[in-house]
Amino acid sequence: MMATERNYRFYISREKAKRSFLGIKSTVTAEDAKVSDLIEMVSLAIEEEVAVVFYPVTKTKYFDHPDPDNILKFDEWLISVDTFTTQNTEVAVTSGQYYLMQGGSYQGPPYDRIVMKTDSTRPNLLYSGTLQQANALTGKWGWRDEYGATGATVLNDPSLAIDGTSLTVLTGKLETHQMLLIGDEQVYVSSISAGDPNDTVTIARAQNGTTAAIHLKDVVVYRQLAPFDIEELCGILTSRLFHRGTTAWADRTGTPESGLTYVKAMVAEAVHIVEKYGPPRSYV
Q: Residue 61: what pLDDT?
């Protein structure tokens, strides 16, 4: 089996999980490895449960010729298109020849289909040649491409090298397990060595199908954002697993005198969040 380079998608930082859900002070690091393992497990479980990735992933997907021949439906959400080819990938389709849609509406992202325009200039997705994998679409796949400010810039002088795994930023600007966006490259924060005035951040490069690049000093560092409720769900589930682990995985905690709290079943808030998301329903 061919090995593939790992991509990391953690939907809450370790620092936020500790301060907002676990009540662990930032100076207490004894449980950091455990918390990280739980966040990773929960993040993967959320993706598998809803069949949705919440950070944009750049990749090429291949599709057989559809029926009807003017609609190409997706098995996962599409954010944006880089290139689209048809007729055994020989004919380029331009953005002016199709609409991106979500269900039957001209809305999105995310999108679940491409609908070819009905004028005579559009390529026909139905082709007399090989029907299998005849359409190729390269773009960003996932729920949304949203990012926010961190207040950090690249302080590596003169640049963060293309193969560099140590990022220098002002102290306190980044957190462990964040997915950063520097230029067009996604970068994962695996650990942070605190300093004054700068932190040294160990990173994994070229995440989620992006390409490693040289990033000059003073380039702004953003972070990719998952939906707020997914981040909260990740914190909720991490907390529940953490506290169950401290009670030998009992189904309830507390005492009859002080009250019992049941911790095995998923809380209603988590169920509600999970039910909001899912893969495109129209794909056949």
A: 95
Please name every residue paired with 72 in a beta bridge, in sequence order, or none if there are none: 114
Please list, residue by residue across 241-253, b when 16 or more beta carbons sit within 10 angstroms of its beta carbon and e when fewer do. bbebeeeeeeeee
Output the CA torsion sign for 208, 81, 114, 90: negative
What is the reported pTM?
A: 0.88
For residue 87, pLDDT beyond 60: yes
Which residues partner with 199 through β-bridges? 169
* Strand ranges (E), 28-70: 57-63
Alpha carbon distance 277, 236 (integer Å): 17
User: CA-CA distance, 124 to 225, in Å (whole number)?
Assistant: 37
Integer Cα distance of 132 and 5 in angstroms: 28
Q: How far apart are the first and last CA of the chain?
A: 30
Long-range contacts of 161-168 (CB under 8 A, 24+ apart): 161/214, 162/212, 162/213, 162/214, 163/205, 163/212, 164/205, 165/202, 165/203, 165/204, 165/205, 166/200, 166/201, 166/202, 166/203, 167/200, 167/201, 167/202, 167/203, 167/221, 168/198, 168/199, 168/200, 168/201
Q: What is the pLDDT of residue 272?
A: 79
Alpha carbons within 13 angstroms on the beta-carbon side of residue 168 total 14
pLDDT, one tens digit per residue, over 146-184 is 999 999 999 999 999 999 999 999 999 999 999 999 999
**Domain spans, the chain:** 1-56+231-278, 57-141
Q: Rg of the chain over CA atoms, in angstroms?
A: 22
Task: Provide φ and ψ at 120, rounded to 5°.
Answer: -75, -10
DSSP SS3 for 27: coil
Number of residues written out for the chain: 284
